[in-house]
Amino acid sequence: MSSSEAQVKDGIIHPSSTEEEVQQWFRSASFSISVQEEYQQYEGSDILSLTLEDHKELVGDEAGSRIFELLAESLTLYPPEEEPQTSIYLSNTFLA
User: Higher-confidence residue: 40 or 1?
Assistant: First the structure.
């Protein structure tokens, strides 16, 4: 079994999923051709970073909600990465 088939078979889009794997996921979930075409250029990391509102804007309320719900397992396993926070600590000690 190829890694593409495995990633579609487990029903989860991974951050490392390719555009083709994302398309296979849409086909396996029986989404319409028009929905599949809307996500044609998306890789796993791209689609997992979209919000519910992003999906609704792309394909409408019904399909967008369904996609978001189906992606919930992927989002639980692979939450979007947050921007790293940098802390700077200042001392009130002066060097002479």
Answer: 40
Number of domains in the chain: 1
Q: Is residue 33 part of a domain?
A: yes
Q: What's 56's domain CATH number?
A: 1.10.150.50
CB burial class (10 A; 0-12, 13-18, 19+) of residue 48?
buried
Q: What is the DSSP string of 43-91?
A: -HHHHHT--HHHHHHHH-HHHHHHHHHHTHHHHHHSPPPPPPP------
Domain contains 12:
yes
Q: Which residue has the tokens 């926070």?
A: 85
Structural domain boundaries, residue 18? 3-77
In this prediction the pTM is 0.68
